[in-house]
Every structure is written in C-alpha cells, then in structure tokens.
Amino acid sequence: MAGSAMRRVSLRNLAAHKVRLVLTVLSVVLGTSFVAGSIIFTATISSAFSTIFDGVALGVDTRVSPKETQANGIPNSVLDTLNADRQKLGIAKLVPRYSAPVTIATADGTALQTGGAPSIGTAFLPSSESLSPTDSKLEPGGRAPQGTGEIALNQSAATKAGLSVGSTTKLVVSRGSAAPITVKVVGILDLPQDTGGYVNVQMQQSVARDLFSDGSPAYVEASAVQGVSSEQLTQRIESVVGSDYSVQTGAQVRQQEKDQVNKFLDVFNYILLGFAAIGLVVGTFIIYNTFSMIIAQRVRELALLRAIGASRSQITRSVLLEAFVVGVFGGVVGLGIGIGLAALLRAITSSNSGLPSASLAITPSAVIACMAVGIVVTMVSAYAPARRAAQVSPVEAMRESQTDGATSLRRRTLIGALLAVIGVVLIGVGTTGQGASWAATVGVGAFVMILAVVFAAPALSRPAVGLLGRVLGRPFGKIGVLARTNAVRNPRRTAATAFALTLGLILVAVVGTFGSSLKGSIDDTIDKNLSADLVLTTSDQGSLPTSVVAAATNSPDVATAVSFRIVAAKVGTDAVTGISPAGDLEKVTPYEMRSGSATIPADGMIVSQKTSDAKGWKLGDTVTFTGYDGTVVPVRVTGVFADNQVLDPWQMGSAAYEKLVPASYRSDRLILVTAKDGVSVDKLRTDLTAATKDYLTVQVEDRAEFAGQASSQIDQMLAVLYAMLGLALVIAVLGIINTLALSVIERKREIGMLRAIGMARAQVRRTIYIESVLIAIFGAVLGVILGSGFGVAVVRTFKDLGITRAVLPYSLIGITLVAAAVVGVVAALWPAVRAARTNPLEAISDV
C-alpha cells in the first residue's frame, strides 16, 4: 500500500510541474537522438547496399579471382586450362572480366564527379554471352558498343553528366599509358547497382581487354551445366587452379561485397556514435544537475513524506520512478528526432556523396537502444541525488535553505587534486616518446585530468567565477555583484552546468590543435623539401595515367618533369608501398644523403633513415620484393637519405619498378615540374593546363596551392569533428537553460523580494544574463586551456608521422570564447524573461 501511494505521489508530482518535466526530458533527448539516428542511418545505407549486391554476380556459379586485390588479374594460361576442361568440369559458360578505373566527361567537358562511388570501365557482354540477364541490359533506343570510339553508360551517370544516346564525350583510363579518347554514347544501361554516384562505362569486350588490362582478365566467372551445383563447380575448379587463387560461389561473392561495405559503414557509425557519446556524457551531467536542483527544491516536501512514515528506500525509489518516466519520455522523443536526423543525413549523403539512397530502416535495435540508453542514463544520473535526498533527516530538511556541505566539497577537491597530479604525470610520461602507445598514455592522462575537473571544478569555480564576475560585472554595478554572488552561491551547480561547455571544447581544442599542427607541418615540409615550380595532381584524389607526364614534357616551357610512380609490393609477408621517380629527382626536391650515392640506379633503391632503421635495410643490402602477380625482384640499397616527408619511405629505380608493376597497372601519384630559364610560373601553368586539359582531373598547382590542397583535405576530415562544437554549444545552451530556469523557480521568493523593494524587470533580466555569461565563459576557458594542453601533448607523440611542431588554433580559441559569451546570453533569454515576470506578492506568499 505504501509503495502504491509513493508511486502516485511521484506521478502526480511530475504532472504538477510540467515545465520542470519538459526541461528534464530535453536533457535526455540529445544523446538518445544521436544513438537512434546513427543506428537508423547506417542500417538504411547497409540495406541499400545489400539490395545492390543482391544483384551482383547473378547467374554466376563460380568466380576465380586473385587472392591479392592488387594482383594483375588471372593469367590467360588459367583461362585456357578452364576452357580446355569445360566439359569435364561441368562449365556451361566461361566469361573473362576486364575492368579499370575511368573518368568520363560531362556534357560541358568537365569530369563527372562520383562523390567517392566507383567509376569503372568494363566489357559489354551480349545476352547470349552473359551469365546474368541484367549484366548489360540496354534501355530502348540504344545498341551495343562497337570499336574503340563507342560506349554504353549507366542511366544515373548519363543523367548526371547530361549525356544521352548520340552524345560525344571524353574518356580517361586512370592507369596505364593510354591517352584520353573521344567516345560516343550508343547505349544507356539499366543496371541493378545503378544508384548513388556509381559510373559504369562499358565497351566492346576486345576493346576493354586492350584498354583496361594487359590482356589478362581481372577475374573469371563461370556457370554450371544442368545437374551441377555451384558448390560442386567451385570445388572442381579449385582443384584445377590450385590454392593460388580465390575460388568462390556467386553467393559467397555477394556476401563478401556486403561484408566489405558494412566494414566501411562502421566508420560512419563510429562518428555518429561519437556524437551520441558526447551527448550522453554531457547529458548525464545535465540530468544529474537537474535532479539535484529538483531534489533541493523538494527537500521540504520529501521531509514531510519522511515525517508521515515514508522510509529512505521509498524516497529513493520514488525519485527513481520519476527518472524512469523521464527516461521513457526522453527515449521516445529522442527516437523521433533520431529518425529525423537519419532522414537528414540520408538526404545530404544522397546528394553530395556516392552513397546509394533507400527508404529509412527503423530497426528494432535502434528502438531498443534508444529507449534503453534514455532510461539507464536518466536513472543512473538521478540515483546519487535521490540517495542523498533520502539520507537527509526530516528535521534538518525542514530548514528554509540547504547549502553544499563544506566537508563533502573539501573531500571532492582533494580527490580532484590527486587525480590532477596523476593525470599530469601520465601526460608527461606520454610526451617522452613517439607512437600510438605513447599517445594512448597521453589519452589516459587526459581522461584522468577530466575526472579531476569533475571533482575539483566546484572548488575552482568559486575563485574563477568570482574573478570573472569582478571584471565583467564591474560595469553593471550592484547588478553585476548580485549576478556574481548567484553564480558562486552553489559551486556544484555552477561546475556541473559549465562542464557541458568544458567537455565539448576540450575535444574541439584537441582536434583544432592537432589539425593546425598537421597543416603547419605540411607547409614546413613543402617549403623545405620541394623546389619544383608546379605540381600536377588529380582533383579526385586518385592517380594519374602514365601518359600525363609525356603530355607535360612535350610543353616547350618545361625544363624538368619528374613523375612519382606508385610501387605496391610485398617484402616477405609485409605489404609495402613506395615511389619510383621517372626523371632527375634532385632537380625538383632537395634531399641530403647520409650514406651512399644520391643517384638511383635502374635496379637499385635509396631509403630514408627512418625506414632503414625500422626495417633494417642498410647500405649494400639486397631487399627482395614480390609483386602481387608473383614476380620476384631483388633490389639493392645504394643509398640512405635524411628523413624527408616528400620522398619517404623509399625510392626505387625504373627497371625494378617495371618488373614489379605490369604496364596496365602503372600510375603516377603526382608530377613535379620546373620551368626553363626565363619562363614565368604563370606562363608554365597556362601551357601545362592546356596540355593536360583532356585528362579531365589533372590539377596544375604551385607549391602554396599544393600545400593548401593537402590542408583542405585535412579540413574535410576534421569538418565532422568540428561539428561537435555545434553539438557542444547546443548541449551547453540546454544545460544552462535548465539550470537557470530551475534556479529561477528555486529563487522565486528571493526574486519576489527584490522586485518588491524596487528592482525593475530589466534589472532582473540583466542579472540572469550576467550570471549565465559568467558560467559559460568559465566552462569555455577551462575547456580551451585543458584541450589545448592535451592537443600539444598528443602532437608531441606523433613527430614520427611528420608533425614537426605544435600550432595552437588561435582564431578558433578566440571565436570559441566569444561564442561562449553569446551562448550565455542565448541560454539565459527564456529564464531571464520568466524571472522578470515574477509577481512580487505571489512570490513572497509562496510556500
């Protein structure tokens, strides 16, 4: 009976204080909405890809592909063997597949942007030769491509590019030595995977074989004769080709494609769940702060319940019941907002990226996770205030006011100081070394320091906010003094409110410091290690076909053009990647030799000092490289150069490179160019732009622009993390609104007294504004100082990645502090208006 009565009291209390209920529910919503949004969004994209891959390899019973993704396809000898044994193996059809990355021009002559989706060239197969009826299905009005100058193009790409049957355009193969070719669209393809930014250019099979490969297919697909299952055919073919190749059923191929995409989508999920984690952690403090204030306001009410027979456990359970109800409401609202966030993300990614679109997938896991997180976080946050309220004796609770216990505050401060010492020691130890393990030590130290702030911030807030109040409140006279007094009156509340900004801005300052340091180091590296006048790169972050350097060299204003060719191979079981320069390397980038000769022999290599130390490749050693097609090439180390970020990790001679990398797989990372004497850089740029125009994605940049491009890539990677600043501000606004609104309710009689003795409404509003600004700036300053320190410490552990110096993001810091003051005012608008409308007589008579 008693338990039932307490439940009724709790529910009626919630119903009687609707504003308080709404404020508390809102503090739960942000974290739960991001949890729901992240799960729904990734489930939606995963569902879209699954639908696409359900149409991949249809009609295929067996696929034979290289075990290594970078291998040069399947040797024709394997294809010949399978053809010879078709009847014995039970093969109905055997289809070699040829493909390569390509770029196609739009109707206005610019490169068709895919947003990161694949853009590939493949062979067109008539239905009589194809394994799948949808493999090369043409829209009405088109026909199969014939000869080098004709293509079929998938529907979505044709629409996006403004091309149709009869259109003429440019086609560039992104690897190999083929020059750009002019092609005519003769057919539009209806493909099951035609979604997002996907581009598929199909050409006659013999043309595709010559243009997209060195004559060997990328993989081979087979269908079984009647009476032979996919598994049987796969086993038979595997027994013929051996263990050197991957032999899979069509179903296994589809599942592998889905698994790879889901791994890729995990990145999105981690990013979105990172937002959710911030919302949840900061939301936990807001909920804790909210319930602490609610309990403080209801302490006399709870004391009366204790006086009439309610036990401590019943008081605790009644508060937890309220928290449960709030968690349920917050979870439901968060789920609704999460669905909206997922829909917004879907709209953004569908229009600006290569991701496919699909209807929203609202999975049971999203609903369960959202509700569980909302309920658990709220009840955990409310437990400590509930337990503390239950331990207050009825007589003590009947007092007019409650204050923070001095003993409890001293204990918290001592714990915080101890944690701060431990955190500083860990960070100091971490900065003495370089690498991931040392960075992890810094991370642990930073986490301990954040815990130290949680414990010690209440004690720190009194002098810090008091000092800020004296400075910022001085122009407002007595109003400023009153605002300062209100801000420092309850240090726990002030610290918990400010922590919303502190935590978010710690993260932003760390990211900002790391990004600024990385960009500053790139500028230093290019200034120090690059002497070329211009750099040729691609606008899509891909590779350049090897024919680009020939086009550049033919320009009459070019003195030197050195292409940096990508070498991908294995040494033992380790995959390695390096560069093979084509041209006089010393004329475009200065480098200092530690030992050996600076000249790279055709069958030799030079390595950086760091690589020599790490891998043990010493002067005179022979390193055995194995190409991904099995070619073994011994290469002698003829020199060791001082660490150089442009040339790191090693540079290989041309003869060794050509043995390792088949012609159709060769590509350039970039090309460095110098002008002839008397030729201006602007003149050289104009000539090179004209010479490489047909390659569609080639960019001609000077050194500053090249550094800027690298910096812009960093900015793109950091953009999502910087968005957390917006989330931190939103959470901070919510937290400060909560605190101030509840504080206004708590101080209703006090505000009524001030109004009764003559304080104007504008003065009441101004008091709340100043109090809010003081709390916001305190949280922001604390977050920026800690975050900048953590950022510098992290940067020092990554010097081996080429981050040469720590650079603080001063502009970001300045904007942050100004934004904190604005946040303080914005957050105080509604509570200030509410306080100003307090009726003096009603407030004074309120009991």
Automatic annotation (TrEMBL):
Residues 125-135 have a biased composition (Polar residues). InterPro entries: ABC3_permease_C, MacB_PCD, Macrolide_Exporter_MacB. It comes from the Bacteria. The chain crosses the membrane at residues 21-41, 267-288, 319-345, 365-384, 414-432, 438-460, 494-515, 719-745, 768-795, 807-830. Residues 22-239, 494-690 form the MacB-like periplasmic core domain. Residues 275-394, 723-840 form the ABC3 transporter permease C-terminal domain. Residues 123-149 are annotated as: Disordered. Pfam families: FtsX (PF02687), MacB_PCD (PF12704). Keywords: Cell membrane, Membrane, Transmembrane, Transmembrane helix. It is a multi-pass membrane protein. It is found in: Cell membrane. Belongs to the ABC-4 integral membrane protein family. PANTHER family: ABC TRANSPORTER PERMEASE YTRF (PTHR30572:SF4), MEMBRANE COMPONENT OF TRANSPORTER-RELATED (PTHR30572). This is ABC transport system permease protein.
